[in-house]
Amino acid sequence: MIDLHTHSVYSDGTNTPEELVDLAEKQGLKAIALTDHDTVAGVSELMAASKKRAIQAIPAIELSADCERGTMHILGYFVDHTHAAFLEILKGIQEDRHERNINILKKLNKLGHVLLWSDVKTEEVQHIVGRPHFAAALVKHNYVKTKKEAFERLLAKGRPAYIKHFHYSAQECFEFIRAAGGVPVLAHPATLHLPNDALFTLLQQMKEDGLAGIETYYAENNLKNRRTFSDWAKKLDLVCTGGSDFHGGNSPDLKIGVGFGKLHVPDKVLDQLDAVKP
């Protein structure tokens, strides 16, 4: 069993890369991929920690891509986390993200939810700041009772403190990932909020643009979605990948490797991904 979708303190998770390896070992996993948002800063730590254990560490990333509806994330597996051109692209994304964060902070303050940057970018936050960190700060300062409420009232799309930021197209994300030696995969397809016919048509186009896989084994995919995505993967010759989308304490009911308890990503997925590397 493997887990190809996890997050650390370098984005919006609460565990260090070394702690992720510890948890993976306790769960009996054979491999783990670190897919932090827009950064590979934690990959070296993950790989160093895995050398002490019988666990394979997969250098990876999760990029946000532009889309009309919902949320589109592109996972990149086996990326060279030292690739200079790739790191430069990530630097630009992170700079835009920082500007967005400052503007979210200003909006919250104008709405009467007064926070300092140090309330959001705490010592525990190693690298990337995102909306989950704002949600945590809002809970800590008693502006909302839960992180879910923070998103529903303030931070989600269409809410008063939401700010859209720049995203590359999916095709550009594929190109960046492949140029860094990686394999691009569409994460959690259901979050695109598209009817099945429109989603399948989009996958066909994405396949032509360089997509190599689709996240089929995913903690929040119901059985119907899993079967549908698996069928589509066969038709389009895409690899069925998967993972828990583990965020540690930010999603306490979600466990590494097994999701909500029934997730099982087959070991063979790694060989299938390896076979389609550039």
Characterization of this structure:
- The protein is an alpha/beta fold.
- The chain folds into 2 domains: 2-81 and 174-275, Alpha-Beta Barrel (TIM Barrel), CATH 3.20.20.140; 90-155, DNA polymerase, domain 1, CATH 1.10.150.
- It contains 10 helices and 7 strands.
- The protein has helices spanning 17-27, 43-50, 84-110, 117-120, 131-140, 147-155, 170-179, 196-209, 223-236, 268-275; strands at residues 2-6, 31-34, 56-65, 72-77, 183-186, 213-218, 239-243.
- A 7-stranded mixed beta sheet has the order 1-2-3-4-5-6-7.
- The longest helix has 27 residues, at 84-110.
- It is globular.
Brief summary of the model shown:
It contains 10 helices and 7 strands. It has 278 residues and is α/β, with parallel strands linked by helices. Helix 1 packs across helix 2.
Features:
globular, seven-stranded mixed beta sheet, about 280 residues, 7 strands, 2 domains, alpha/beta, DNA polymerase, domain 1, 10 helices, TIM Barrel
